[in-house]
Specification:
Elements (H helix, E strand, L loop, with lengths): L24 E3 L7 H9 L10 H13 L4 E3 L15 H8 L2 E3 L10 H8 L10 H15 L4 E5 L15 H22 L9 E3 L4 H7 L9 E2 L11 H8 L25 E3 L6 E3 L14
Parallel strand pairs: 1-2, 2-3, 3-4, 4-5, 5-6
Antiparallel strand pairs: 7-8
Helix pairs in contact: 2-3, 5-6
Length: 294
Amino acid sequence: PAKKEIFQLPASYRNMQSPSVEYRGIFINDEDWGLTPWSWQTYEPSDVKGQIGPKTHERIFELLLRLRANTFWPAMHGCSVPFYFTPGNKEVADKFGIFIGTSHCEPMMRNTNGEWKRDGVGEYDYVHNSAHVLSFWEQRVKEVAGLDNLYTLGMRGVHDGAMNGAKTIEEQKAVLTKVLRDQRDLLTKYVNKDVTQVPQVFIPYKEVLDVYHAGLQVPDEVDLSPLIGVVLQVGHQLLHAVLAADGDARPDGVANGVGSLHFGGGHQGDVLGVPSGCFGGLTHVLPHGRDVRG
């Protein structure tokens, strides 16, 4: 560029920039050997075993903002206290403007693995116990409705397994169709009367991908994402879901391998399931992936 003696901008000048991918962040996974003991035993000592508190999350959220990220899936394994069970966690997320979401087996902001045993009634089964399951989801939606959230829709088992009560793919499709409708009714009631304006994601992970391929209808405004962030699990099913272009392109671009969530690549690969299981470290860049560096 030409050398200038003076560089001037008008007093009214504004240049607002943001990354091209709307929700970018990390998933705290397999935290039992690292973050959980470090937090409750060392950085933020607590009498509550497995608690990851607001002081720890504040450091994580500061890092996310420095990396131009804005989305966080909290730790969710049995070794950790659920995120919303610890006072101050949701408040510090709100302070930093972080969108909180949940993983593939934690619909409606509920850490099902850690929370159903305390707040649930009966079996986690939408075929035979839908009223109590819906109430379980409703409690959390009411609690966090005024915060920044990325709502995971759908349903699997209590943890990383298939849903209870429905055995065949067709049965699972029928249940998931009702689940999606009921969950979106909750979002309409408590979050925004225009549900299309509520950030939502559906994750066709493992057996759920077979149900999706069987014709499960997911509303267009719901992001279709098999993975998120920089710590993720990669398997044949996930790559198939992202790269498949066997239908009309959705508004989120998933048929072309892109979307409003950061698909990216990761360093952890451990998936158990058909067509094969794998363990190991890897980095995978999806073709047609969107540049998320902003």
